[in-house]
Amino acid sequence: MQSIDTLTDFLAVAGANHEASTEYRIYDLSRIVKPFTAEEFRAIENGERPFPYPRQQHAWLGIVLRQKERAESNQIHDPYIWFVKLPLDERGLFQHAARQHFLSIIVEALGENPTAAPTAEQEKRQQQNPYIFTPDEPRRAAFHAQVSHDLQFPASVHYSDALAFLRGEAATSTWQDLGVQGIHDVVVRNLQEPSIQQHIHTQLLQWPKPLQQTLMEALEHAKLPATLAQNLIGTLPTVPREQQIMVLRCLANASQHTNLQNAIQQLLNACAQDLNTSGNTSETAVVNDIQDLLLTIGARNWIALTANDNLEHYLGLLATINEHVFIQIFRDLVMLPELRGLMLQLFRKEQLSPALQRGIAALVAQTRSS
C-alpha cells in the first residue's frame, strides 16, 4: 500500500488491491449538509484553503464509500458510511496530528479494504475510534436524502406519502403518518415543483409545530428556489420571534440574498429596541427569545452578517445579553472564512459600543489566562 498522508490518499487507494474498485464521496455535515467536490476537499487537505463551514472548531464529515465489482456483472454494493469529526487549527485547517492519528486507526482497524465486512475485532476498534460521531436524526435524514439522490438510489418508503402531502394532495389530518426521511427526500428531489413551493409558503406557519419543525430541518439544508426564498423572507417582519427563528432556519442556504441581509438588519434593530424596553435583565422571556434568535442567525445565517454592519450590531447584542455566550459564539464564528477578517478588525476599531468593548476585553482576558 502506498504512503497514506491524507484522507484523500486513503480513499483513492481503498480497495485498489482487491477485486473491486472503490468510489467515494465526502459531505460536509458541519452546518449545512452539502457535498464537496474532490478538488475542493483535496485543496482543504493540502492547506490551500480553510475548511469552509466549521462548527465548534471541528470539521464534521460524512464519507461514503461504494464498492464496484470489476467482474462482468458490474454489481454495485450498498455504500459504506463513516461519520468523522476532525479538529481544526486556528487557521481553519485540519490539525495534522489529529488527522494522522485518525488515519492510523483506520488503516490498522480496516486494512487496505475499508468496504469489506468488518470482523468483530475491527468493529470493536471502530467503536473506540475517538473521531467517529453519530449525527442527530435531522442531520442524518438530510444526509441520507442527499446521498440517495446523488447515487441515484430510490427514495425511502416514506417518500410517496410525503410527496402527496407537500403537493397539497393529502388531507392535513394525515400529517402524523408522514415519515421524517420522506419529507427530507421530497425537499431534495422535488422542491423545484411550483405546487410544493406554493403549498409550503401558504401552509408552513399553519401546520402543527412537529411538522413545521421537521420541514424546517429539511429546508435548512436545501438550496431554496428564488420565489420560495423571497416569500419566506417576506414573512419575517409579520410573525412572532419564535416563528422568525423557524423561518430563518429555513433560509439558511439563502443568507447571501440582499433582501434577507436587510431583513436581518431590521430584526437586529428590533432586538435592540426590545432590550432597551426590557431593562436588560437576563431573567426576562424577551431576552431569552432574543438570545435564541441571535444564536440561530450565527449558526444558520452567518453570511448575512457580512452586510450592513450586521456583524458589529449582532456581536454587540450578544455581549449585552450574556458575556459568556458572546465569548463562545465569537470563538465559533471567527473560524468561518467569510467572517474571520471582519471579526479580527474589531480588535483595532476605536469606536465600539460599550457592551462590545467589554465583551472583547473579557474574551482577550480569558484567552490570555488559558
Task: Give a verbal description of the structure.
Helix content is 53%, strand content 9%. It is an alpha+beta fold. The radius of gyration is 23 Å and the shape is flat. The protein has 17 helices and four strands. The protein has three domains: 121 residues, no CATH class; 88 residues; 116 residues. Helix 12 runs antiparallel to helix 13. It has a four-stranded antiparallel beta sheet with strand order 2-1-3-4.
Annotate the secondary structure layout.
Blueprint: H1 7-13, E1 20-28, E2 34-36, H2 38-45, E3 58-69, E4 80-87, H3 96-110, H4 120-127, H5 137-150, H6 159-166, H7 180-190, H8 194-203, H9 209-219, H10 226-235, H11 241-250, H12 258-278, H13 285-300, H14 310-321, H15 323-333, H16 337-345, H17 354-369
Antiparallel strand pairs: 1-2, 1-3, 3-4
Helix pairs in contact: 3-4, 5-7, 6-7, 7-9, 8-10, 9-11, 11-13, 12-13, 12-14, 14-15, 14-17
Number of discrete helical segments: 17
Can you tell me the residue ranges where pLDDT is under 50 for at least 5 consecutive residues?
A: none
Strand content: 5-15%
Along the chain, the helix and strand elements come as HEEHEEHHHHHHHHHHHHHHH
Shape: flat
What's the count of strands? 4
Q: Which structural class fits the helix and strand makeup?
A: alpha+beta
Work out the count of structural domains: 3
Q: State the distance separating the first and last CA atoms.
A: 42 Å
Biggest sheet features: 4 strands, antiparallel
What strand line-up does the widest sheet have? Answer: 2-1-3-4
Which percent bin holds the helix content? 40-55%
**Rg estimate, integer Å:** 23 Å
Calculate the mean pLDDT score and round it. Answer: 88
